[in-house]
């Protein structure tokens, strides 16, 4: 891979925001601010590439829910079966005697992935969920 020469630039931040940046950087174990900022930028590039690329892309959906919520598991399974062409894999984890974590790998157009994710996230009883877009990362360097 042809590595471009690094370009140094200065960024001015309010002191409070700089403390936040340093706290986040340290918490994620980055050795320096430059690597942390590069990864933040790469994350934004993934989001942009994901939303604008033609054709197929991928994403990962996480759901946390109470499995004792009436008919919730059946509703989630039904939505997943209707989207079987886009759902490539799922992992079900028992967090405790009531809570479950579902991790679902999706493949398809960004619109199709968002539609399935939103259907699953909107089911009554889902406590938390997040769709994480992913790409092959061709534009991240």
Describe the protein's architecture and organization.
The chain has 141 residues and is α+β, with helices and mostly antiparallel strands. It has two domains: 15-52; 57-134, ACT-like. Chain A, domain 2 (Alpha-Beta Plaits, 2-Layer Sandwich), CATH 3.30.70. 40% of the residues lie in helices and 26% in strands. The protein contains four helices and four strands. The chain has helices at 15-27, 33-52, 72-82, 110-121, and strands at 57-66, 87-94, 99-108, 126-134. It has a four-stranded antiparallel beta sheet with strand order 2-3-1-4. The termini are close together. The model has no long low-confidence stretch (mean pLDDT 90).
Strand content: 25-35%
Bin the helical content: 25-40%
Unreliable spans: none
CATH class identity of the largest domain: Alpha Beta
Task: Profile the largest sheet.
Answer: 4 strands, antiparallel
C-alpha termini separation: 9 Å
Number of domains as seen in the coordinates: 2
What class would the helix/strand composition place it in?
alpha+beta
Give the spatial strand order of the biggest sheet.
2-3-1-4
From the 3D structure, determine the CATH topology of the largest domain: Alpha-Beta Plaits
The tally of beta strands, per DSSP, is: 4
- What do we call the CATH homologous superfamily of the largest domain? ACT-like. Chain A, domain 2
The shape, in one word, is globular
CATH architecture grouping of the largest domain: 2-Layer Sandwich
Number of helices: 4
Q: Can you write the helix and strand succession as a string?
A: HHEHEEHE
Provide the gyration radius in Å.
Answer: 19 Å
């Amino acid at each position: 891979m042809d590595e471009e020469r690094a370009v140094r630039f200065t960024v001015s931040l309010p002191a409070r925001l700089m403390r936040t940046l340093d706290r986040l950087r340290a918490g994620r174990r980055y050795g320096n601010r430059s690597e942390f900022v590069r990864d933040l930028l790469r994350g934004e590039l993934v989001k942009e590439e994901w939303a604008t690329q033609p054709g197929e892309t991928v994403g990962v959906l996480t759901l946390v829910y109470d499995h004792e919520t009436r008919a919730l598991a059946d509703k989630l399974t039904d939505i997943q079966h209707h989207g079987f062409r886009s759902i490539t894999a799922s992992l079900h984890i028992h967090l405790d005697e009531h809570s479950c974590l579902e991790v679902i790998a999706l493949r398809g157009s960004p619109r199709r992935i968002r539609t399935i994710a939103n259907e699953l996230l909107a089911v009554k009883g889902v406590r938390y969920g997040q769709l994480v877009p992913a790409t092959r990362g061709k534009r991240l360097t």
